[in-house]
Structure formats: C-alpha cells, structure tokens
Write a sequence for this structure.
C-alpha cells in the first residue's frame, strides 16, 4: 500500500465517492490507485475550472464533499475562480493538489510554484502532507473541515504518493458536520422582536439555509408575525416552487434592494451577514438595509437552519402559534406558454411552466434572467442555484457536478452567452458522463451587465473603443457548432415555439443537450 | 482627469500600446478611459488565460510589456496559469487588476478576496495603489519592473480609478531594461575553461538568451574551442533556422538529457540555472548534468547575452579568434515533402519545408513534436517558442499575442489536442482581431504524455478506471466544429496531401485558420 492507495482508501471509507480530476505527471500514482478503489469514481474535466465547479455543484446537492484532483500550482490556479464561488457557497470541497516530490522542490524546476500560497486565498484550510504515513490522517482532517461547509486543500507531494507505507494503517473516520447550536435566549428575543415589528419585520435566509424545512418554519413565523421572508441574492441553493413556502429573493440591483429593505425596521439574519451591495458605486451607499435597522443574528450559516427557526416558532405565544399553523405552502400555478419572438420576460413565463418536477435550475442568466425568480415561484418544486461568489462561468461546471450527484433529476442550466464562454469545454464532460443537463444559452451577444454598469458608475458616453470591450459580436459565436464540437447535441431557436420543440427533444434525450436562445 | 485617465496616459507615455482585457464592473472607468487614449489598443479576451497568455506572447516578441486588465481576485486567478508561464519565460507583463473601492472591501461583498495574496505567487512585484494620485507613479514603477523581464501586478481600487486627481500630474517615465554587466574576469575564465575542455565543453543558452546575435557569438566560440551549443529545453524564444547559428535543444526526457550531458565535463551557463528534470521520478536522478561537471555562470537571464558572449570571444587568444571567424551559420536545407498518412515524424519533415520566412512557431506539440526541433533546424529563418513554465494550454493565447505584436509575420501554432482544450475560446479573439495565426491541432485524442509518465513513475498496469482519465475519446472532440463556432475557419486532414492543401489555403487567408491534424 503506497500513499496514494492510503489516501484513496480514506476517501472511500468516508463516503467521498466522486473525484473530479484533471491530473498530470505528479498525480499518476493517485490515478493508478483509482483502479484499486472501486468506490471512488474518477470524472475527467478538460480544464480545472470544470473540475472545481463540478465539485461545488455536487456539494450543493449532497452537503458532502467530492474530491478534486489538480496538478501543481498552475493546475490549482485554473480551478481557483470556481473555488471562490464554492467558498462563498459554503460548499464542502476536498482538493487534492499534486506537487513535486519533496526533494525536487528545491531544484526550482519549471512547474515549481508556491502551491500553499496559491491555495490559501481560496481555501479555509491548507496542508501539505509531510509523508506517505501522514496522508490518511491528513485527508480525514480535510473531510472533517469540508463537511463544515469549507474548502479544504491538501497538497500531495509526489513521493508521499508513491512511497510504500511502513505501517499500513486503518482509514481514520472524519467527523460529521455539527448541527447548529440552538440558543433559547436568541430564539425568544427573535420571536419578541418579530412580534413587535409586525409587517416591518423581515427574515433573511442566506447561505445554505433556504432549504424546504427552514423555509416552512420561516413561513409559519411570518404568518404569525406579519414578517416577510427573503432569501439571499446569492443563496447557493433554494428549495422552492409548489409545495414549498414562498420567499422573495433579495434583488441584486442596489437601488431596488435598498428600496425593498426600507420597508423594514427589524431584520432577522439566518445564515446571513448584513446585506451589502455587490459592487461600490460613486454615488450609492454600499449597505442595503436602512441605517438604524434592528438586526438580529439568529444563527450562522448551516443547511439545518430549520432547527433555530423551529425554536423561534416554539417561542411564540400560543395565539401566534395557532396562527402560524395556518400558513400554507405555494400552490402549483403554471402559466400559459407564451408565443412568438423570445424576450427575457417571455422566457421567464416559459420556464415557469417548463421546469420539470424536482429539477435543479442553475441560474447564471444575469441580465436576461431578472424576471425569472418571480415568474417561477409557483412552478413545480425544484432547487434553484444562484451565483455565490460572482466569478462568472460557473453554471456549466456546477450543473455538471449537480447532475452527477443526482442522476435521477433533470438539471436546467440557464447560462448567459458571455458567461458560458469562460469554460465551454465543460460540455465535453457532460457528453462523456451522459448527464441529464439541458443548457439554455441566453445569447444577447454582449456583456449586457457591463453596459448597465457603465451607467451605474457614472460613465455617460461609451465610445467605440470601450464598446469593443463590451460586445460579443465580430464574430458572433455559433453555440450550436461549439456544443456539437464538444459532443453535446445542440439547436438554436428564435421563437418560443422553436424553443418548446427543442426543449421537449432535450428533455427526452438520454444525455445532455444545449439550446441557444437568441435574444 | 480621473485615476484611470492618469493610469492610461502613463501607459501610453511609456509605449505600452496594447492592453489585453477581460473587464468587469470595477474596471469600467478604465475601459471608458480607453476612449480618450488612442495610443492604447484594447483587445478583448473571453477568458483571462487568453489575456495573460497573449501578454506573454506579445512580450516574447517585443521584450516590452503589454498591459492586461483583469477583474478582481477570481479574474486574476483565471489568468494565473499563463502568468506562471510568463514568469518562467522572463516576459515583461504589467497586470492591472481592478478591485473593489477601498471603502467597500471591509464589507466582504461576494467578490471580495485577497487580491494581493492571489497575485503574489505568480508575480515578481505586487502593489495596491493607495489612491488616484499615486496611480501614475505606481504604473510607471510597474513598467520599470516589467522591463527587467518580470511580472508586475498593480491592483487598482475602483475609487482610485474614478476619483478626479486634485493635481493632474505629468506621466512619469519608466526606466529601460538594464544591459547585462560584462565581467572581464568571468569572460576570461570562461574562455580558458572552454579552450581546456575542447569537445568536452558545452554552452547552454537558457531564458531569453538564444537570440541570433548571442547564438552567433556562441557558435563562433564553439568553432574556436570545440564546444557544443545548446538552447534550454524551456527557452521562451529561439531565433533559428537558415542564416542563424545552430544549437541543439536540450532534450526533455530525463534519461536522454542525462545521456547527452554526460559527454561534457564543462558547462557554461548563459541565462540558465544548472539543468534539472522537469519532474522527479522514483528511480531517476533529478539533476541532468553529470555530477562533478564544472559549471560556469557567465551571465544572468537577458535578451542581450550577445554582450557577455562577445566578451568571451574577445578573450580568446588570436589563433582561436581566427578559427572562430570561420564559423558558418546554417545553410537553408528544405527537405522533400513527405506523402501519405500523417505520422509525427512526417509532420516534422513537412514543417521543415513549410515554415514561412520569418514565421513565429509556437510549439506546444508535446509528445507529437519530439522530432520537430531537429527536423526544422535548417528551415527558413524563424522564431521558435518553447513551453516555459509547464502550465499547459498556453499556445493559442501566446500565438495570439505574438501575432498582435508582429502583424507582418505569420504565426504557426503547434497545439496538441489535450492542451488546446484548456483555452479554446482564445480562437474567438484570433477571429475578432484577424490575426495571421495558423493553428495545427495535433489530434492523438489522448494525454499521450501521461501514458508515458505512468511508465516513468513505475506504474506497470493501467486499469480501465485510470485509462478513462488519460484518454480524450468518448466523445472525440470535433475541432473543426469548435473552431468554426468561435469564428475561425477550420479543416480536418488525415494525409500529408490534405494537410499541404489546407496549409496553403490557411497561409493565403487574411485572418486565422485552424487545421486538425489527425494522428
């Protein structure tokens, strides 16, 4: 048993069954060890961003880490932007980053770099294994850390991977994620504050908290107190649609968010920090809640926010609890399918009726999708993924990982064309793995958000030179050609009727499909 | 005049005329300022690796920095792997990395990260501008640093970009790159050692040193002393072919390199460190020169190694100098074009005859290209780019930047299919800019080098699971479709005759072209 075998045995022992990988020479023993570890599935990505993004998507659905396998500093570097998103999504991830053999580092060979320094800004935890004997314990520690909703980066020197263990050890067992501490005094204070605030109270569920049970508890509290329930703009996964309890998504645009929050003087933060603007603008305030708002931090980020919210519910007086019990989940309400040329608004209505039961919707629609959350609030029950860290190009990788985690569910990726151009080779992994991902490319052929942002930052005139950096024409990308090149069947549509037909074909397919929606 | 205007004026004042960019909201004032700075051309990349790689290619040809424009920590992160290569190529690069407004950082908005920490492992110099007034001096410092063959990363807070300067200042002038110090004693010792060593002497030109003048001086020294001239395996740019002085490329494979170097007991290092293996292997030595070899460090890395080499030449005794004068450059020797099915060997012969006068050959052919350097030694004069840092996927971006630096020259990119799949969207920038780049995709449909490396690290049996991580089939990438999707005309060829015809069409085209060469 060499170090790589020991590492993989420990992953398998702890239920880490998927390894998204883009290996190189220094990872060859790890790759060879996969042959002897049938419980860990290797999934090849052609680019490291596809690998780390897939791990994020996998974690959003399972609350458990997948492993990644990355090749030295530059391989890790290619995966960092999606690790940033994973970190902001509180996604459990265990990175295994191969490095040179320990004795080779000092020679400063061309691929040598500061791997720990590269990992640190995008990891909660970084460790270089000192030798083959340490690996099993190190990776168990990494899994324990990851299960807390963190990114753990374990650096694997090539000689630690290939050396034989002097004492083959049993695989250590990683710790489970802790449940949130329920503080009775905080629960009581929250209940009292919301009762006092009435309709000027709001509950904001951020991070991984907007799961069905937590939303149900929040919905009942809202019914009893008159509060409004919000989900964070950047909540990684919201369980929503018919049968779930309604919540509004806090808007992205600063003015709109400030306007919405100005209606409240009491804000209960559930796995959320005081909300702030995504970017600063010369003449806008960077905080979103009205100054002076009473904020209560109910619980830190957790997928089990139902526990502290239930405690708030239990702290309400009897009459309020009776009222709470009258709260009703959302009724299914599917709109009529629109017709004709596609607009972003019509696309929202189309989606509302088209999301399949239990689908996972991965939303990187950016400007084209501003109406989607409201339009789809009463669709069939589904999970909705939001952007988390703001690094774009995540939807294709994250959709791929979610589909691998949940092979029985359909994944709908809503991808703006500008964003999809960051990591288009992810489509190849979708084709190879035969995942059920339907990608809609929302093709407005420009960085539309930057056109808005030019105005927001006070630039009135966009000249020709600046304009060339904001448009995606000259040439127009032919998404059908790109997608087919990577092995994913594709069509381009310009009307809702064409979209409907293409969408039905895509849902009926065995594997992935892509539809370019020309806007 | 705001900070962004001042920054751009300073770039223009110092001859930094090209900015490869992938901007976001925090860079909008910089983008707007481009409209008022006609001397700086903005070139859009759809992915940051395309941006930083293009800056590397631009610098390899000009020895001057281009600027890059990147968006916060994740945007920088996407560009790091090609910055690693640029750093190892000693390419001058000035990165401008937008960050949140200074007062916004503390709010920890979703896109906040440690930008300085992210830049540091892949930069020689990192600075965050403190305010708009400091920007001009900061970017002038960055240019000074870059001209030394370094990567300079300047972080630009959004408010420093948008604030008006209280005192509009003249643009400071950056310092030129210093010429190498020529040490007479070292030159004399080198001359003496090489005379003593005779045919057991060798001269290794690493880094940016293998330019025509330096190779001519080294070739004359070799003629006088009996030494052999090598260029480093990872020299970023070698001026070679007919009319230049011959040099052998030090082989990549460890055993082969050790075998070659065992013939020498004296090794003169010109801009090179003692050569080491790219990777460590369980049973191989990591250093390449025979232990006990007498090494002389003639000069540090510089594109002007002709100066210290000329000093060595001048230190030779009269008789040796007379002999040196007899040295002859390479005669043009174009082989007959081969025929039939394409093999890597035949492709090398094809290239030997097909490289146009003054072409720039960007070589990321990896296993398929092992015979290319020797085969093309007597081709028409050209520049040959080698991998430098070992981070793969660099050839398309670097070729694009080289073509933008040298619009009158043809660029031939030799790209292995696995490598080309890292940053294929670079093709779009080629199409938009209409660059004269002919890309040959060498499609063996596997990570062939990793199959070799499995054996090298001692893995005898590759099982089915491991094999899935090493092959690029299921599905086969259709490069013609991918390339056309990004706007670059493409063909696929399987015989030398088809290749010849496609190649002639590509050379005759106004803009870029891609040929998938099925191996």
């Amino acid at each position: 048993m060499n170090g790589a075998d020991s590492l993989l045995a420990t992953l398998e022992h702890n239920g880490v069954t998927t390894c998204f990988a883009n290996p190189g020479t220094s990872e060859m023993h790890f790759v060879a060890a996969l042959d002897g570890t049938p419980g860990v599935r290797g999934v090849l990505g052609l680019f490291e961003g596809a690998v780390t993004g897939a791990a994020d998507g996998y974690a959003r659905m399972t609350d458990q880490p997948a492993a990644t396998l990355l090749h030295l500093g530059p391989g890790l570097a290619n995966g960092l932007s999606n690790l940033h998103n994973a970190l902001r999504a509180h996604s459990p991830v265990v990175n295994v980053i191969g490095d040179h053999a320990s004795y080779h580092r000092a020679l400063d060979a061309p691929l040598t770099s500061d791997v720990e320094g590269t990992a640190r800004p995008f990891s909660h935890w970084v460790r270089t294994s000192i030798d083959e004997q340490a690996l099993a314990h190190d990776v168990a520690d990494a899994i324990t850390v990851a299960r807390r909703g963190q990114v753990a980066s374990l650096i694997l020197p090539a000689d630690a991977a290939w050396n034989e263990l002097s004492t083959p050890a049993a695989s250590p067992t990683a710790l489970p994620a802790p449940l949130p501490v329920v503080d009775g005094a905080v629960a009581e204070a929250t209940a009292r504050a919301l009762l006092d605030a009435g309709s000027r109270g709001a509950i904001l569920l951020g991070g991984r908290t907007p799961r069905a049970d937590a939303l149900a508890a929040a919905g009942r509290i809202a019914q009893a107190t008159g509060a409004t329930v919000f989900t964070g703009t950047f909540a990684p996964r919201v369980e929503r649609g018919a049968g779930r309890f309604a919540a509004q998504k806090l808007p992205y645009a600063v003015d709109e968010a400030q306007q919405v929050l100005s209606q409240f003087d009491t804000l209960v933060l559930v796995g959320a920090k005081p909300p702030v603007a995504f970017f600063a603008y010369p003449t806008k305030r960077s905080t979103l809640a009205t100054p002076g708002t009473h904020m209560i931090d109910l619980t830190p980020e957790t997928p089990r926010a139902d526990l502290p919210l239930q405690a708030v519910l239990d702290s309400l007086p009897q009459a309020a609890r009776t009222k709470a019990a009258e709260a009703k989940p959302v009724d299914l309400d599917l709109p009529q399918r629109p017709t004709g040329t596609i607009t972003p608004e019509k696309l929202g209505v189309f989606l509302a009726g088209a999301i399949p039961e239990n689908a996972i919707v991965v939303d990187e629609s950016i400007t084209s999708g501003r109406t989607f959350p409201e339009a789809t609030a009463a669709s069939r029950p589904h999970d909705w993924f939001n952007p988390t860290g703001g690094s774009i190009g995540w939807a294709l990788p994250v959709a791929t990982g979610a589909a691998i985690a949940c092979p029985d569910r359909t994944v709908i990726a809503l991808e703006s064309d500008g964003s999809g151009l960051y990591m288009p080779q992810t489509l190849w992994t979708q084709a190879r793995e035969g995942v059920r991902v339907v990608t809609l490319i929302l093709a407005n052929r420009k960085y539309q958000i930057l056109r808005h942002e030019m105005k927001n930052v006070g630039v009135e005139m966009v000249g020709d030179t600046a304009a060339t950096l904001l448009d995606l024409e000259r040439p127009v990308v032919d998404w059908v050609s790109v997608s087919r090149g990577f092995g994913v069947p594709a069509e381009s549509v310009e009307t809702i009727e064409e979209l409907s037909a293409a969408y039905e074909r895509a849902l009926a397919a065995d594997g992935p499909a892509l539809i370019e929606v020309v806007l």
